[in-house]
Design goal:
Length: about 80
């Protein structure tokens, strides 16, 4: 796996989340965010498939996706 770092949330309280990477081999995004724990939200979302997790990912992080920023990893 070859991961390309795309960006980290500059507004994160601890500077360690959320983060987005691009897997150049699988051609998929890898996201790090806060695990969704709000019971009402989890109920509204419904069942979760085995092996998956739901995370919160700030809208301001969209700037790091090449589809949004014109292909730049350093936006």
């Amino acid at each position: 796996m070859a991961l390309e770092f795309l960006g980290k949330d500059p507004n994160s309280p601890n500077g360690d989340s959320a983060t987005v990477w691009w897997d150049t081999e699988a051609r998929e995004y890898v996201l790090q965010g806060y695990i969704e724990t709000n019971p009402a939200t989890l109920t509204e979302l419904g069942p979760l498939p085995v092996g998956e997790v739901r995370i919160r990912f700030p809208q301001r992080m969209m700037q790091f996706f090449p589809e949004v920023n014109g292909g730049r990893a350093d936006a």
